[in-house]
Amino acid sequence: MKAFGQKNQKGKLKDKERAIIKAAKEVFAEKGFQKASIKDIAKAAGIATGTFYLYFKNKEGFFEALVEEMYQELLAHIKGERTKVPDTLGKLQASMNACVRLFIKERSLARLMLIQAPHASPLINTHLSVLQDGLVQLALDDLNEALELGLIPKQNTQVAALALVGGFYALLLSWLKNDSPFDLNAATMDLFHYNMYGLKSK
């Protein structure tokens, strides 16, 4: 259930709500869920602590809804980038590149989404599973289309999609956990070519 329900008649978030959400992303990314407090968020947003509760019930519910929204925004961003690519297998690469560009730009936020948040609440794990399922479905659609077009030989596209997304997810986690992060762009390209070689050599 969304926590961001305080909207005006046009459905747009109020300015203070936007300020709170923006500040919360920064505070949670910097301090993590456990150490971040409502006071920290309020200070970063430039509001009184009590004002937070005029818009949101508590930290836990707010954080769950915030992370769910970030997952949905990520999936929407990936889908948007895919529309710019005409060829089927190119959409697979576009999906990965869209995620990589965003995470390189917002590494702290990426750590929050993929490492810190899933440990904060069982509900967030459910939201993460929904995101992963959405990515697998995109990959599956691309692979099924590639199969129909004769771009790849006959194979179990469900398994291939799971392997592709699973490998990419593992790569992202490794990059986020590394204190001296490797070149994620280059590693993603290597992973993509490795998967393409496997897909086409069946």
Protein architecture, described:
The chain is an all-alpha fold. The protein folds into 2 domains: 1-57, Arc Repressor Mutant, subunit A; 63-200, Orthogonal Bundle (Tetracycline Repressor, domain 2). Helix content is 76%, strand content 0%. It is built from 9 helices and no strands. The chain has helices at 15-35, 38-45, 49-55, 59-82, 88-105, 107-116, 122-148, 157-177, 184-200. Helix 1 runs antiparallel to helix 2 (38-45) and helix 5 runs antiparallel to helix 9 (184-200). The longest helix is centred in the last third of the chain and has 27 residues, at 122-148. The protein is elongated.
The geometry reads as elongated
- Poorly predicted runs of 5 or more residues: 6-12
CATH arch. level architecture of the largest domain? Orthogonal Bundle
Distance between the termini: 44 Å
Binned strand content:
under 5%
- Which percent bin holds the helix content? over 70%
Number of beta strands: 0
Structural class assignment: mainly alpha
CATH superfamily caption of the largest domain:
Tetracycline Repressor, domain 2
Describe the main β-sheet briefly.
none
Whole-number radius of gyration? Answer: 19 Å
| Overall number of domains | 2
Number of helix segments? 9
CATH topology of the largest domain: Tetracycline Repressor, domain 2
